[in-house]
Each structure stands twice: as structure tokens, then as C-alpha cells.
Automatic annotation (TrEMBL), chain A:
UniProt keywords, alphabetically: Hydrolase, Membrane, Mitochondrion, Mitochondrion inner membrane
Compartment(s) of residence: Mitochondrion inner membrane
PANTHER family: MITOCHONDRIAL INNER MEMBRANE PROTEASE SUBUNIT 1 (PTHR12383:SF16), PROTEASE FAMILY S26 MITOCHONDRIAL INNER MEMBRANE PROTEASE-RELATED (PTHR12383)
GO cellular component: mitochondrial inner membrane peptidase complex
Gene Ontology biological process terms from the UniProt entry: protein processing involved in protein targeting to mitochondrion; signal peptide processing
Xref: SUPFAM superfamilies: LexA/Signal peptidase (SSF51306)
Species this protein is from: Selaginella moellendorffii (Spikemoss)
Residue stretches spanning the membrane: none
Family statement: Belongs to the peptidase S26 family. IMP1 subfamily.
Name of the protein: Peptidase S26 domain-containing protein
Residues at the active site: S40, K84
Length: 153, 162
């Protein structure tokens, strides 16, 4: 009796581990649901945190384009994920409107990230071009708030 | 009969998918076996490619120290993984010898590390592309499993060649 109960529990445990593994693989390689909190992407996304669907394939295949909204690991804090728009790819020249001004050529393997909220966004204007290897995925759909359902352009 | 064969095949297929998923999760979060090819880590690692075991936890927990050998995504090519030693952490100041003689001091910004290959003359590293965001680090190399005469832990100082 005890042996049967233990093997039931082990069976349930194994099923849970398999589920978790599959979800982890799916969210790392295919689709992930993430939240974008903060003012840096106003007016596109709200301050309190829109819930977005991110697809992983474009980044993995190198098919990111200027204008895409992406999730990326922050260059100044490895534990933080930021949500910004790609304003330039490697080889492009960006004219920086800031206190220092000037233009920046984006080196090989890097992109220029900028928040839609010009005045309240810490982005490449502050930390420079960002290595493409920090990009996690392309935001392509919003699922919350309900009135914001739809593709992210 | 056909139904039983199909469900056998589906059962095998599901078992294979479960195995692959588990191995993917394990190598992304726990341990990974990787190869370090090229001259940049001589004499510690050979040119032709030593096979190394990388642990993922130190990087995830932020417990990387100066002297650790790490695998990292290259800042200049997102598809490439490089194998270098950490010579500085955020806040440290690195003195870089320049070709013209003399040297410059570089302060490593927040969230970055300084990567350098053990092979001073033949390594493209932070001396070329600057401090590297820690988020590019994948794992800490802690054991070598090939070549056989090189079996053993990988330490925090450059070692003799095998």
C-alpha cells in the first residue's frame, strides 16, 4: 500500500517536473509572457505594467528590425530586463539629441535601444549601443490591459 | 493494431521530447559541456579545443570572482560564445598597456566585467571591445574533461599547458 502511494506521488512529481521543464524550454525558445513596467515606453505602454507576449525566434535568427520593441537584459544591471525600441542596428549612425549631442556609429554586433518616452527613459543615450546578445525577444502582442489587446507595431 | 503502433510511436516521441527538454533545462540552469577553441586562452587551454564543464549557478547568483574563467556571449558577434578570464569586476580600475607605450586606466562601470584571454598577445577581449556587460556571462568554467592529461579543476590563476 505504502509502495503504491509512494509511486503515485513519484509519478505526479515526475509529471510536474516534465511540465515545468517543457514550459521553461517553451518560454526560452518560443514565446514568453512578460510585463513592461515604468514610464520609459509611454505612451506606447502604460506605467503600471502592460502584459506582453514576446517571441524569441526573431532574435535567435537575427531578424530584428529598426522599430521593433524588444526585451533585453540591462547592460547596467544583469538581473534587470528592460523593454525598449530598436532605433538603430549595427553600422547605422545615430544622431544623439542630448546634453552631449553628437552622433554615434553603432559597432558590429550592437543595437541602439531607446524608450518611446523621450524625457524619461534610461537607454542607449545613457549607456551607449548595446550588444545584440543582450536581446531576449521581440514584443509582438499585448494582452493586458484589455483595451490594449492587439499587435505591437 | 495500427492504433497501438501509433500510440507506441507517440509514447516514444513524447519520451524523447521530455528527455530533450530536461537536458535543455539542465544545461541552461545547472551544468553545460562546452569546448574552448583557439589560441586566446593558451597556455591554460589548448588551441584545438579543450572540453570543459561550465556551471551556471555562480553567474546567476552573481558570485563571479576575479580570476574565474567564464564562457560569455561575444559583444561583437551575438552568435559566438567566447572563453576568457575575469580580470576585473564593476568598480575596479584596470590599467591597460597601449601599443604606443604608456598605459591608460579604465574604470569598469556598474554591471560590467573585464574579460581577458590568458594569451596576452593573441586574444581579442576587453582590451579591444571594452568592459563587457555581466548579463553576457553564461557560466563559470570549473572543470576540464578533455584532453585526458588535463582532467581536473580549472583554477583562478593561469595554468601550465598540458
Amino acid at each position: 500500500m505504502l509502495w503504491k502511494s509512494l509511486s503515485d506521488v513519484a509519478g505526479r512529481g515526475a509529471a510536474i517536473v516534465q511540465c515545468v521543464c517543457f514550459m521553461d524550454v517553451f518560454s526560452n525558445h518560443v514565446l514568453q509572457i512578460q510585463q513592461c513596467i515604468g514610464p520609459s515606453m509611454l505612451p506606447t505602454f502604460n506605467i503600471r505594467g502592460d502584459i506582453l507576449v514576446t517571441e524569441r525566434l526573431s532574435v535567435k535568427l537575427g531578424k530584428i528590425r529598426v522599430g521593433d520593441v524588444v526585451m533585453a537584459r540591462s547592460p547596467s544591471d544583469p538581473r534587470m530586463v528592460v523593454c525598449k525600441r530598436i532605433l538603430g542596428l549595427e553600422g547605422d549612425t545615430i544622431t544623439v539629441v542630448s546634453d552631449k549631442g553628437g552622433s554615434a556609429k553603432i559597432p558590429k554586433g550592437h543595437v541602439w535601444l531607446q524608450g518611446d518616452n523621450f524625457h524619461k527613459s534610461r537607454d542607449s543615450r545613457e549607456y551607449g549601443p548595446v550588444p545584440s546578445a543582450l536581446l531576449q525577444g521581440r514584443v509582438f502582442y499585448r494582452i493586458w490591459p484589455p483595451q490594449g489587446w492587439g499587435f505591437v507595431g
